[in-house]
Amino acid sequence: MDSRSGQKTRNRWRSRAAESLSLLGRLPLWQKAVLASGLLLILAATSLFVYTYSYFADLIDQRLTGQVFNNASLVFAAPTEIAVGEEATPEELAGRLRKAFYSQGGSSTFGTYRITGDQIEINPGRDSFFADGPTQEGPATIEFRHGKIASIAATDRQAALDNYLLEPEVITTLFDQTRAKRRLVRYEDLPKPLVSAILAAEDHRFFSHHGVNLYRIIGAAIADIRADERAQGGSTLTMQLARNFFLTRRRTFRRKLEEIFLALIMEQRLTKEQMFELYANQTYLGQRGSFSIYGFGEAADAYFNKDVRGLTLPEAALLAALIRGPNLYSPYRSPSRAKERRNLVLRRMRETGFITLAEEGEAAKAPLHLAQQNLEGSKAPFFVDMVKDQVMAQIPERELLSQSFRIYTTLDLSLQRSASEAVQLGMQQVDRTIAKLRRRKNEPSPDPNQPQVALVALDPHTGEIRALVGGRNYGVSQLNHVLARRQPGSSFKPFVYAAALNSGIDGSQPLVTPATILDDSPTTFVFNGQTYDPGNYKQEYHGEVSVRQALAHSLNVATVHLAETVGYDKVKQLAMDAGFNHDMLATPALALGAYVATPLEVAGAYTVFANDGDYVAPSFITEVKDSSNHVVWQITHTERHVLDPRVTYLMVSLMQSVVNNGTDAEVRSRGFAAPAAGKTGTSHDGWFAGFTSNLLAITWVGYDDDRDIRLSGAQAALPVWTDFMKLAVDLPAYQDVHDFTPPTGVVTASTQEPVYISPRRAEAYGVTISPGAPNSMTQVSEVFIEGTEPREPTILQGVGSGITGLIHKVFGASPSPLANGPAVPGPPQAQPPGEQPGANQTPNAGPTPPQPGKKKGVLKKFLGIFKGGDKH
To answer: What range defines the domain where residue 140 resides?
Structure first.
């Protein structure tokens, strides 16, 4: 039965086909031509469709396969140490971990965490910084009590810990071939308010249509006709995604057809969640400095300093509002317009059923609550530029553009924020000081060219850069002033004094100690047939001064005398050993910092003083890993021994006098009380170089065109340094500031010889004198390298004139090699009315009071008895 039925059907089709051919044969020629043309047209259209479909399908496959976002490399900060007793909450730690790509109970390869009550469990993953690295941190459980860390336990070892390192947080991305900032997020990371806000603002039927919404397209066309312009977009979210990934933004009919075609194909090849995730990472959401913000992960951090998962309803609505015009609705440029657009998004969310009327009302009343627009504080752009340059010097560019790397740096994000804040605060004061100066001189104000600034802070024991600010505003100027070569002025002087004090180690003559007397009288120096007249700041001279006094008050003439006696070559060699460039010349100008150096070089050089005589070169990258977590490049640390620790301690003691009682005493008056040592510098620019037991920082302030800033280092750079250090010591990692400890072989001894001091200066020497006694004699203490301190009084001690007294003043010693001590000046003249209280205090000793106006003898000039002082 079935066989006969099938045969009948085949016969019927054959009959119909024969009839069709017979009918076709009877058609007129023109009808045959029309029919043939129609068939050819259908064939051509089909072929075109197949070709176009294949082309766009291949385009989608190529673009969305593998690394979708241009193989961007990730730049990470340094690991963050937390300790028992530190103020913190589980939510705060979770926020840090999310910025390190950890997920809450998910499957992140970087690591996971879980919050249970008052504790958080942390589990580093296979792509963790600690995996197979020199620093091992395993899983840990951290408990909290009363807002503080109560305990830390290593769960794999069942051991209690005092501290623990958190995974490095990501700073930014590099090598994506654009100046773009993007922080990738997954669909499941996006909070519901943000998803709802995006849908309400752009395409609330996204999860129900098939890529093209004809109602929107027709509605947009009608609106365009009525407005006689393209006033409204009709693109669905899928069409926007197609345009952002594959097409230009030029508005043409052809591009719109391509959008539609691509959207239809993408709807077939991707799930709705996959498309929404791509959209969330690709959408342009504004500018931050010279960088473009792409994606809601980066935008959440840029606008609110938050992880995307922590966005509130009004914050999510604001970000969704930026999609239509991120620069037009910028909350920083036009807060009222941004708020109006945000509230429109909230209204659409209520109209489409995503939120209630009450939720809309509450969110619409909320202020914008933006993060401070501070690129330097949040992204460290000058630092990142240095990282980029160094990585490109080590890894071929073709590799950097073809695969994703993880670049681990030394940056401390908390300290970086402090540095940025200090630069803003300090430069506000500098601006005010300059404005007052211009008013006094009746100069036009304001000056359109603001002074620039640089700050670099590093660990003095490792050389690792912890914070860096290269200018006032990266968006205005990308010139990194940390690398600019300028004259360091008196911030170079400590290297002169260190070269001189090294005589106590190498046995060279003359022997110089902190108590050695120098001559600070107007002097013309002759070098290679040329004269050099340094002069002191404000042309103030102090006669006979000790080494401690000369450095504390930055006396130029005394310093040049000292360099001349020690030998300019020795000073230059020490400076080069400490990391200064080789362009310096061994001349009198060297002693006053006349040869250029960068703030980064000065920072490296000062590690010699802060690190027991060992130089450590500044570094800012620890290692670079490829996408397989293999280390492809690691930093090679440069370290060398430069000074004996005993000499270093003497220098630290002298520079403490500078900070406590000398030209840098404003450090104390501005409220920084921790033990510190440092030195200002003034050339055309202002400098300050200083350090504590665990942090070294250099600040520089000056004009790009090398104009004289007309402020001393104490007026220009010191405020920035002080504000920074005050913020730094409040951070847990830098709170443990301790006194500088003298090494074995350093002694504190009396100068043996009595010194005249007035009751007014008694406090400076740590002694009490009756107010009724106008002048009194006492002995003061000083630090010495053991074996160079004064011995028991001899017949020569106390002699203030004659050849033996002169030798004693020049060499800081009596004719006996071990009888070392300063000369005894006569009673000092009355102090000038303007003397500042405590101006001559020292931490360990009272320097010998000056004897102003004493004239130089011929022999004294010949032997180079010294003097000095720049603008501090």
So the answer is: 76-174
